[in-house]
Please model this.
Amino acid sequence: MNTFYIRKVKYNIMAWEIILTADKGSFTDYGGSSVLGYVACMPSRLVPKFFMDRFFTPDVPVDSEGKAIVAPYALRKVESTLVHAGFDSVAVIPPHRLEKAINQKTKVLGLTVHDPFGLNPVSFKLSMIFGGGPTWTAKYFEEFGEKISKLKSKYNFKVIVGGPGSWELTKENTDWADVIFIGEAEADLPRVVKSIIDGQEVPKVVYGKNPKVSEIPSIINAARLGEVQITRGCPRGCQFCPITPETFRTIPLDVVKKEVEVNMRAGIKRIEFITDDVLLYGSQKLRVNHEAITKLFTETMNMGVDGIWFPHISAPAVRSSPQTVKAMSEIARYNEDRAAAPVVGLESGSEKILSKYMRAKPFPWTPREWKDVILDATAIMNDSYIYPCYTMTIGYPEETNEDVDQSIDLVQSIIDHKLKAWIFPLPVIPMGVSYIRNNPFPVLEKMPTRYWDLLYISWKYDLQITREMIPILTGGIKNKFAQRAVQYMIDKIFDSIEWVFKQLKETQGKYAYTFASINLNNTTGVIKAIYWLFRLAFKPL
Model:
């Protein structure tokens, strides 16, 4: 082991056989607010690299050995899996420290990827409506790939790529990736790693089996944003989703609390439950288990955490158990300045589309009752300081303007009832392990023409709601400059953004090509952007 000094801080150069990492767009805490992670889904030419690196995807801190103090939950889970399988030389290293961590002893480099080619629904949509080009998620992955290629040619290690975006690598050839691991890691990844270290051949694509709950070890080091998994999978079985019904499991409370303790020892008191639906914790056959959920929230809060948040909840579960939603909110102490904004699947207003692609989505109700389910659930959530970010899937092969009109009607009903929610109509993506993986990718010219009306109505309301919700959106941002910058963007620029979506509506998407020549990462692009913003500032009313 050697040592060196940077700014009077002592670092040790260690040697590990297995190094786990991710590209810069994934290996970050987004400045303390996960909502800023969506900026990385924008075309890279529209967001200056300085702002991305400094405010939206800052480097995470490292310890004296160069290991990450906090890391994405997926890497922490893989780290724990390998350690529990008997591997004693494993380190989680952020990308900016990778060159100093890899050496002749390195045998395996493991990556988790979320959206390596910008193909997930949010990235795909933002690229499509803002003139195309690689998103920052894709740009960061491309840059990271170049770095890995150079290191690999020097040290001759093997690369395993896994994570929720690993299916994208089956669409394009990535020479430096030796194994693409699709699925969950616990059951099969240790075997794959051992085979590589032993010099055995491993298939290019490996599908991991789903482990039993007892086979899922708890994390041993802190996860960013206090992430702790409480469920895996979803039993609803929507065809556009890569998560199949048989994958659903509830993580035992003692394991959840053990992971909370790990995060708290690192000084993290904000807890983010990882789940596809918080109301399915401890459930049987999609029935809300009020006792299990209230016990989960109560015992977690009693550990001394500052608060509990969650990424996903489902409208049917909310409607079926409003008392549970109210109890969750009270236990977690939500209020006007301390609210939750989970992602919720709105999907479609069309009974035809719901019946074909997501029949169990409204359960215990039917697709015909979906509108009432959404309106009732939104009101219940709002009463408990929960403001849903509704996502929609638009662009199925047989979807017509009549189907989109029904979606517009549903969105307009939310607006007419003055409910607080964000609504994001996204193009449906044939993700690699979903039931619709053989569907064609959506293209701007082939979207139903009424999609652009839906997009405008939704975004106009989104901007109105966002103005009202500034304190909630910026409350978790640690960097005060970034907080003020976000507030300024929200408060001063939204009129122009609304005008942009109006132009997209009136031109049925063709206005998107206007943005194609704007690049804020070079001088010419900045001049064009200034001209474009000047036009927006003096646009006719």
